[in-house]
Amino acid sequence: MAEMTPSDTGADTPPIALSAAPGYQVRRLYQAYVAAWVRLVDPVLTGPQFAVLTAVGAAPGEDQSSMATAVALDTSTMADVARRLEGRGLLVRRTAPDDGRRKLLFLTEAGEEALAEADRRARLLDERLLEPYGPGERARLLGELTALADHWEGLTRDA
User: Fold this and answer.
1) Is the dihedral of CA 97, 59, 91, 67 positive or negative?
2) Which residue in 79, 72, 46, 87 sits closest to 154, CA to CA?
3) Fewer CB within a 10 Å sphere, N or C end of the chain?
């Protein structure tokens, strides 16, 4: 029997056990998305930071814990993201007058400007990502992705 070289084994393609695994495909999507985000939206502002700015822009003055839930971050990650955004002058955290432990979040003027520009670029990225799909297919795909995310998040609560 002849010895197989790496090129004979298909080393540049994943084994079927991987390519058939949903988690593997989700990881591939995420890696490609992050690379596209850095190149086309913002090399400094991360996806979670963008999500926090978006949520705070939509509901200024909400508390940090509620915002964490809204953007699917745990409270310690949310605290770190908020601290970083505050350090960059994009967000202000104020202590709630009725409860010194609660932090209320507000965008600064610079935060509003950064959000507007990042949102414009993110919408253009969304268009490129969904380019192969027509409007009806996009709605169906987003519905499927949302349902899958909801189901997978439920699995983490059940475990």
Assistant:
1) positive
2) 72
3) N
Q: What are φ and ψ of residue 20, in 5° steps? A: -90, -5
Instruction: Spell out the domains of the chain, with CATH numbers in brackets.
Output: 42-129 (1.10.10.10)
The structure's pTM equals 0.83
Which among 67, 42, 68, 46 is positioned nearest to 57, based on CA atoms? 67
Do residues 106 and 62 lie in contact, with contact meaning Cβ atoms separated by under 8 Å?
no
pLDDT in tens, 94-152: 999 998 889 999 999 999 999 999 999 999 999 999 999 999 999 999 999 999 999 99
Cα–Cα distance, 107 to 56 (Å, whole number)? 7
DSSP string for 56-103 = HHHSTT-BHHHHHHHTT--HHHHHHHHHHHHHTTSEEEEEETTEEEEE
pLDDT of residue 9: 53
The pLDDT tens digits for 35-85 are 999 999 999 999 999 999 999 999 999 999 999 999 999 999 999 999 999
